[in-house]
Amino acid sequence: RKEVEQDPGPFNVPEGATVAFNCTYSNSASQSFFWYRQDCRKEPKLLMSVYSSGNEDGRFTAQLNRASQYISLLIRDSKLSDSATYLCVVTSGGSQGNLIFGKGTKLSVKP
Amino acid sequence: NAGVTQTPKFRILKIGQSMTLQCTQDMNHNYMYWYRQDPGMGLKLIYYSVGAGITDKGEVPNGYNVSRSTTEDFPLRLELAAPSQTSVYFCASSYWGTGGEDTQYFGPGTRLTVL
To answer: Phi first, then psi: what are they for B17, rounded to 5°?
Structure first.
């Protein structure tokens, strides 16, 4: 089982759609979880951290299920500017500084 | 603050050549990292450093070397370039305190092609 697995994508959606990204991780010792956004030919940037209680930032909602080792990201009312690749990222568990990145899911929002 | 800066932005190397990828951060972060990203793949950790004078291997360290003589700088050295090292290289930094790690900030990347 790969350490961090994401939907392969790509997702092509119209403006205003709701999009859900799914991610599973294999290391039960992982402590921290994140969603990063990466625009084409650019560096990754933190979108939001993910907490067990779930967290929301405007149109974005992240959820964590530790028992299922599952992370999700929901984007509501998608905008053209949301087009990017979304990376699921977890800590490796035990080793400080080791982030494990998923391959990412590409999102294209069309007019 | 400039954040994390990397030079060069692009480079083409011949097999067997060597080069150093430069990375500097001005945020007084204690942790610094080097990743590589191959097309369609996730980022892989090459080396990281928890502070000046301390470095450790990541997932894919072979063919690379690093040093951390100052808090600000974390250069990555390729001694004998191989086509398998064609990739985009990202440097990142973060602050780890008693509360754990803050966000990792990434540099703009160096696109390296080895022919």
So the answer is: -75, 165
Q: pLDDT per residue over B39-87, tens digit each?
A: 888 899 999 999 999 999 998 999 999 999 999 999 999 989 999 999 9
Rounded Cα distance between A82 and A53, Å, is 24
Residue of B nearest to A8 (CA): B40
pLDDT band at A53 (very low <50, low <70, confident <90, very high): confident
Which residues from A are below 8 Å from B when comparing CB atoms?
4, 32, 42-46, 87, 91, 96-104
List the one residue out of A46, A15, A34 whose CA is nearest residue A90: A34
CA distance A25 to A70: 7
Cβ-nearest to A44 among B94, B96, B106: B106
**Are the C-beta atoms of A97 and B101 separated by less than 8 Å?**
yes
Burial status of residue A104 (CB atoms within 10 A of its CB: 0-12, 13-18, 19 or more): buried
How many degrees, rounded to 5, is the angle at CA B77 between CA B93 and CA B32? 10
Distance (Å) from the alpha carbon of B109 to chain A's nearest alpha carbon = 6
Closest CA to A34 of A55, A48, A19: A48
Q: Which of A43, A97, A99 sits opposite B108 (nearest CB)?
A: A43
